[in-house]
């Protein structure tokens, strides 16, 4: 298992958006700016997750994006998402990424099929076996239509590269069940707004959407959450962050980043569209709140 970084030193991972130009092609100049901004904030970077619209991109685009970011020689770790419904295709993707200077994988549940404990364990076992890198499993039943069963984690403990779990069910009881089933795993919150709760329950960190728009501020939010000495975090942060999830992610954060001047367009790949968010008052208000937050 290779990684030049101690991943435990990175409590915040930004699930990076994929910027598109006016022709809805990947805007690599903007991509460079975005990843450099995250590196400056010392945030780990996750490429091609659901926030990065990974499932709407072609295999060629996946490969080009990962190669491009690797060639920037950033001084923060890179994680690459693995997700879909075809196991052999995902194994091939893992094997391709094994040849590049990345540092971790995010392994998503298989989509649509809704496998049980045996099917889930087989899926993750195959991907973990193919990987040369530390792996974070991703529990997001709202997108995959199936929740990872805690028993699955117990069935996978023989894999030395099973490093972490991203928990995005929004249920603190589920978080506790995972901690009991696999106490050796680092568990990251997959919900920005719940980070203070998850930190109190023993979370290692956050995989964040909000950090795209507010990289420095989100890093400070995670530090304060982990410290547990700032009881006003919910009143000063959560309401603002919730504005990024009024419609499907990453629509609001891309609209906000366009308004901030970080993106040249708010474009998304179909079936997502920025036209789902005709009113931007909430995200603009959130931006004012967070940028003045201290």
Task: Characterise this structure.
This protein has 294 residues and is an alpha/beta fold. The protein has a single domain, classed as TIM Barrel (Alpha-Beta Barrel), CATH 3.20.20. It is built from twelve helices and eight strands. It has helices at 28-40, 59-71, 87-98, 117-130, 141-144, 150-155, 172-181, 195-200, 215-227, 233-242, 251-260, 281-291; strands at residues 12-15, 44-47, 78-82, 104-108, 135-139, 162-167, 186-189, 205-208. Helix 3 (87-98) runs parallel beside helix 4 and helix 10 (233-242) packs antiparallel against helix 12. The chain is globular. The mean pLDDT is 94.
Provide tags for this entry.
eight-stranded parallel barrel, alpha/beta, globular, 8 strands, TIM Barrel, single chain, 294 residues, 12 helices
Coarse structural class: alpha/beta
Query: What is the assembly state of the chains in this entry?
Result: single chain
Question: Within the CATH hierarchy, at the fold level, what is the topology?
Answer: TIM Barrel
Task: Count all strands and give the number.
Answer: 8
CATH architecture: Alpha-Beta Barrel
Give the fraction of residues assigned to helices.
Answer: 40-55%
The count of helical stretches stands at 12
Mean pLDDT: 94
Shape type? globular
CATH class descriptor: Alpha Beta
In terms of DSSP E residues, the strand content is 5-15%
Total number of distinct structural domains: 1
Please give the order of strands in the largest beta sheet: 1-2-3-4-5-6-7-8
Helix-strand string: EHEHEHEHEHHEHEHEHHHH
Rg over alpha carbons: 18 Å
Family: Belongs to the DapA family.
GO molecular function: 4-hydroxy-tetrahydrodipicolinate synthase activity
Site (Part of a proton relay during catalysis): 50, 112
Subunit structure: Homotetramer; dimer of dimers.
């Amino acid at each position: 298992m290779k990684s030049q970084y101690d991943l435990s030193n990175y409590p915040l991972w930004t699930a990076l958006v994929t910027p598109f130009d006016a022709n809805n092609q990947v805007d690599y100049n903007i991509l460079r700016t975005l990843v450099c901004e995250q590196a400056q904030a010392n945030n780990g970077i996750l490429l091609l997750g659901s926030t990065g619209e990974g499932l709407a991109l072609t295999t060629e685009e996946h490969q080009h994006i990962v190669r491009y970011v690797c060639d920037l020689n950033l001084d923060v770790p890179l994680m690459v998402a693995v997700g879909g419904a075809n196991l052999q295709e995902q194994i091939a993707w893992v094997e391709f990424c094994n040849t590049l200077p990345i540092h971790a994988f995010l392994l998503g549940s298989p989509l649509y099929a809704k496998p049980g404990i045996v099917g889930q364990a087989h899926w993750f076992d195959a991907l973990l076996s193919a990987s040369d890198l530390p792996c974070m499993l991703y529990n997001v039943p709202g997108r995959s239509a199936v929740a990872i069963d805690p028993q699955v984690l117990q069935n996978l403990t023989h894999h030395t590269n099973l490093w972490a779990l991203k928990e995005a069910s929004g249920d603190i009881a589920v978080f506790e069940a995972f901690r009991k089933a696999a106490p050796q795993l680092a568990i990251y919150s997959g919900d920005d707004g719940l980070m203070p709760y998850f930190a109190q329950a023993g979370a290692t960190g956050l995989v964040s959407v909000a950090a795209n728009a507010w990289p420095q501020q989100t890093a400070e939010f995670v530090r304060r959450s982990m410290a547990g000495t700032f009881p006003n975090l919910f009143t000063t942060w959560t309401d603002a962050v919730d504005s990024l999830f009024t419609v499907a992610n990453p629509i609001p954060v891309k609209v906000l980043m366009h308004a901030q001047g970080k993106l040249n367009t708010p474009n998304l790949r179909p079936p997502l569209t920025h036209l789902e968010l005709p009113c931007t008052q909430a995200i603009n208000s959130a931006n004012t709140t967070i940028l003045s937050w201290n």
